[in-house]
Amino acid sequence: MRAVLAFATILAAAAASPALQPEPPVHARTCSRSNKDNTLNNCIRHNIQAFIPHVKNGGKFGLPSLEPFHVPETSFDLRTGLIDFHAVMRNLTVYGLGDAVVRDAMADLGDDAMLMDVGLLLPKVSFRGMLELSGGQILELPFKGRGIFDFTFSDINATWRVVGKRQAGEEHLEVQSVTPTYTVGGMTTDIKLPDQGIPNLDRVINAVMNHYWTIMVDMGKAYVQKPISHQLRSVINTLFQNVPYDQMFPASWLAALLAGDINATWRVVGKRQAGEEHLEVQSVTPTYTVGGMTTDIKLPDQGIPNLDRVINAVMNHYWTIMVDMGKAYVQKPISHQLRSVINTLFQNVPYDQMFPA
Ligand SMILES: *[C@@H]1O[C@H](CO)[C@@H](O)[C@H](O)[C@H]1NC(C)=O
Ligand SMILES: *[C@@H]1O[C@H](CO)[C@@H](O)[C@H](O)[C@H]1NC(C)=O
Ligand SMILES: *[C@@H]1O[C@H](CO)[C@@H](O)[C@H](O)[C@H]1NC(C)=O
What we know:
Blueprint: H1 8-16, H2 37-56, E1 69-71, E2 74-79, E3 83-95, E4 101-109, E5 113-138, E6 141-165, E7 174-192, H3 201-211, H4 213-242, H5 245-248, H6 253-258, E8 264-271, E9 280-288, H7 307-317, H8 319-348, H9 351-354
Antiparallel strand pairs: 1-3, 2-3, 3-5, 4-5, 5-6, 6-7, 8-9
Helix pairs in contact: 3-4
Bound molecules: 2-acetamido-2-deoxy-beta-D-glucopyranose (NAG) (3 copies).
């Protein structure tokens, strides 16, 4: 069987368009929403990580570029008593989102509602653009200015809470909100204001902001979170509008199979003895390819601490080998079972009735 991959549908759509370059496949797995807890969460974590390189440089799957990522105009007020100003940021570009490592995922997937927390670690994220300061005051001295800025944050540990809902009768789930929360390990500010009237004002502002960077980060949360959250909602929603919810997260393994997620060929060989009414099924040989596999073994009493976690990690890493091994071991009993099931059918209906001459 060839598991047709949830995210691969977008690729298929992209490949169908002659204008687009052929895409490398997204090595995604089928994440069935009936798989609770770690199996589903690991599956989602794996797929998001596998998906990031495909959207990094943008223009694919109808999604905007992640690297860099553009944010509409936003503004903030700095009020420290030492320096106060109102800042408008334009042509804001974010660098570094493409280097995200998916820390973990926790999903609660219902038939019509989705709640997902995606944990991301970002080594470095820079916001660059144009800055206009107004209503400024430094030690009671008024100023205004215009220039460029670079705010760089390091060691970001973010959690994005994605909430979605599917209306009755709808194929697609709509993403209603994306709420990022995060902690930041450090921040540097580099503002250049060539024409601000006060000599070296930008250097003073940089020094103050670099000193009070934790305050800046807290302020940033209030001001930057809203436009970013808005942008993210639109990006993630595009993805969900491209792939039906039941295909992205099939209700069960069986549903995945029925939805065409699995591509198997069963070779059935039968023979009818002379004078017999019924055909006897002699063999059923399944062949298949698998697009993904997750292993979740729990060994509570194994003596060696975390042995099961190590085994799971190895098996999840070498899943293609596992699948190949599985073919040798699983194929025989499955083929045996299938032969018996299909044979029962042929024993119930005479061959000439099932397929008249
Ligand atoms: C906006 O930012 C991009 C990327 O940094 C830059 O190439 C472009 O020239 C900027 N546009 C304006 C109007 O400054
Ligand atoms: C990131 O934050 C989560 C949740 O707050 C925490 O459990 C985890 O240990 C943090 N990870 C790192 C690498 O800081
Ligand atoms: C299923 O597998 C067969 C044989 O390998 C192949 O010809 C066919 O294109 C596959 N179909 C899909 C939908 O992947």
